[in-house]
Design brief:
The chain is mainly α and 79 residues long. Helices cover 81% and strands 0% of the residues.
Length: 79
């Protein structure tokens, strides 16, 4: 259970770092934040950060469910 919490914390951390990276990039390149919202390179980078964060959260959820099945006596399903 503690390992899953670590993964969720890591997912949130990656999400926040990606958002800050996006904001820093936009603020360096454009005068206002709203001008940078149409920058496809920056939006692609933000999407990749967020997809990586989602992947970490999915791994945590799957591990937690697998641990729950094993503790309840059900045999773990092979994936």
């Amino acid at each position: 259970m503690k390992g899953s919490r670590f993964y969720y914390f890591l997912a949130v951390l990656v999400f926040v770092i990606g958002s800050l990276d996006f904001t820093a990039f936009i603020m360096q390149k454009y005068e206002t934040f709203s001008q940078g919202l149409s920058d496809s390179f920056a939006l692609t980078g933000l999407g990749l950060w967020w997809l990586f964060s989602l992947l970490i959260a999915v791994v945590a959820t799957r591990r937690m469910r697998k641990a729950g099945r094993e503790s309840s006596g059900e045999p773990a399903r092979r994936e």
